[in-house]
């Protein structure tokens, strides 16, 4: 695996943020050709979204998956069950915007009823979340990732194409009042939110949240991505440290994600950095992604997709055969950093936009 200049070296090497070790595989579990054990599935409920985030999609050629190709909820539940039988223990619903699809509550209820031990999570833009918050606890969702790239109303509207910051802030407040853990995802963009560190620092000083800056990833063409909008995690950290003392957090738990987390001295929350571009964490990648039309992606940066929908809908195949396809796909899970490195300068690493994958 490639070495890289790591502004977070004291927390362990790039491939293993926070010094985590990859747990070893038990018999029957999903293991890839690099010895990584897969336990985490991200399921895109829909590719439709009520926001138009400039980093996530392009308005040119934005086509939606036709309805007949979108997996029905019962098909999603069946696929999740098959994945759970292969050792997947954590499931994140994402999109598009999960709540932009009718009946998302019902999906959550069904997933919880069928697989109560599954660690069920959600990534959402928060704009439609408010009425669903009481339901989240009842289906065992203990943490929500909320996308929020700016606390400034004009910037929010410019980035997302919708003037909906107040709705997101209401959801944030509602989640905290409901005792649900909140991780804020902020895509870091030079010329967009790089002048707003005071707001971000204020948020982590005053709220018990994890606020994670995600490095802008070159996904699909026609987004805002470019060398001029890329804001590297090392620079973001320096900007934050001009305002606040950051103390590295060593997290070896299964909870630890790819973010390098820092406690904010004197504050209620934590700041984190997801260095997807400047310093990869492929060594601990334990995830698969499933698009809403039933395509399995083994790496965010790899456009090869394994079409499970046809197998799922065919009367000639059962779950055992589906599982076999997933195992074969998983065995070939690449190192995303290699794909990133191999791409042509200035070009996207994958053709598909994030809105169609789920992040
Ligand atoms: N609609 C939901 C939301 O906004 O959270 C879920 C889908 S969205 C694709 C999931 C995550 O991907 C969000 O946190 C978003 O910030 C992140 N994301 C999208 N495009 C990105 C990019 N080009 N680089 C980094 N993160 C990106």
UniProtKB/TrEMBL annotation:
Pathway: Cofactor biosynthesis; molybdopterin biosynthesis. SMART domains: Elp3 (SM00729). One of its GO terms (biological process) is Mo-molybdopterin cofactor biosynthetic process. The keyword Transport does not apply. InterPro entries: Aldolase_TIM, Elp3/MiaA/NifB-like_rSAM, MoaA, MoaA-like, MoaA_NifB_PqqE_Fe-S-bd_CS, MoaA_twitch, MoCo_biosynth_MoaA/MoaC, rSAM. Its cofactor is [4Fe-4S] cluster. Binds 2 [4Fe-4S] clusters. Binds 1 [4Fe-4S] cluster coordinated with 3 cysteines and an exchangeable S-adenosyl-L-methionine and 1 [4Fe-4S] cluster coordinated with 3 cysteines and the GTP-derived substrate. Residues 33-259 form the Radical SAM core domain. [4Fe-4S] cluster 1 binds at residues 49, 53, 56. GO terms for molecular function: 4 iron, 4 sulfur cluster binding; cyclic pyranopterin monophosphate synthase activity; GTP 3',8'-cyclase activity; GTP binding; metal ion binding; S-adenosyl-L-methionine binding. GTP binds at residues 42, 92, 123, 183, 287-289. The keyword Cell inner membrane does not apply. It catalyses: GTP + AH2 + S-adenosyl-L-methionine = (8S)-3',8-cyclo-7,8-dihydroguanosine 5'-triphosphate + 5'-deoxyadenosine + L-methionine + A + H(+). S-adenosyl-L-methionine binds at residues 55, 96, 147, 217. It is an enzyme of class 4 (lyase). CDD domains: Radical_SAM, Twitch_MoaA. [4Fe-4S] cluster 2 binds at residues 282, 285, 299. PANTHER family: MOLYBDENUM COFACTOR BIOSYNTHESIS PROTEIN 1, MOLYBDOPTERIN COFACTOR SYNTHESIS PROTEIN A. Monomer and homodimer. This is GTP 3',8-cyclase. The lineage of its organism: Bacteria, Pseudomonadati, Thermodesulfobacteriota, Desulfovibrionia, Desulfovibrionales.
């Amino acid at each position: 695996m490639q070495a890289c200049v790591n502004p977070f070296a004291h927390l362990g090497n790039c491939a293993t943020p926070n010094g985590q070790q990859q747990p070893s595989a038990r018999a029957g579990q999903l293991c890839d050709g690099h010895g990584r054990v897969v336990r985490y599935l991200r399921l895109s409920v829909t590719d439709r979204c009520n926001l138009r985030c400039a980093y996530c999609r392009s308005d040119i050629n934005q086509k939606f998956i036709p309805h007949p190709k979108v997996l029905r909820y019962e098909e999603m539940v069946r696929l999740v069950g098959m994945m759970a039988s292969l050792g997947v223990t954590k499931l994140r619903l994402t999109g598009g915007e999960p709540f932009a699809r009718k009946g998302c509550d019902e999906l959550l209820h069904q997933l919880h009823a069928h697989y109560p031990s599954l660690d069920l999570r959600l990534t959402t833009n928060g704009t439609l979340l408010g009425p669903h918050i009481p339901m989240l606890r009842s289906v065992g969702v203990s943490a929500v990732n909320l996308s929020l790239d700016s606390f400034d109303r004009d910037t929010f509207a410019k980035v997302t194409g919708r003037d909906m910051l107040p709705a997101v802030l209401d959801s944030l407040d509602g989640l905290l009042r409901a005792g649900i853990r909140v991780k804020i995802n902020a895509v870091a963009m030079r010329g967009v939110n790089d002048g707003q560190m005071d707001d971000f620092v204020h948020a982590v000083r005053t709220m018990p949240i994890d606020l994670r800056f995600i490095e802008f990833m070159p996904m699909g063409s026609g987004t805002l991505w470019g060398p001029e909008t890329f804001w590297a995690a090392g620079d973001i950290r320096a900007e934050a440290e001009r305002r606040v003392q950051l103390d590295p957090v060593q997290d070896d738990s299964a909870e630890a994600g790819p973010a390098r987390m820092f406690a904010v001295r004197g504050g209620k929350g934590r700041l984190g950095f997801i260095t997807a571009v400047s310093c990869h964490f492929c060594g601990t990648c334990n995830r698969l992604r499933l698009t809403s039309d039933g395509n399995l992606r083994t790496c965010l940066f790899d456009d090869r997709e394994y079409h499970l929908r046809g197998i799922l809908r065919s009367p000639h195949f059962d779950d055992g055969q589906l599982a076999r396809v997933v195992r074969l796909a998983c065995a070939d899970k690449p190192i995303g950093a290699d794909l990133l490195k191999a791409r042509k300068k200035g070009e996207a690493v994958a053709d598909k936009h994030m809105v169609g994958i789920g992040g």
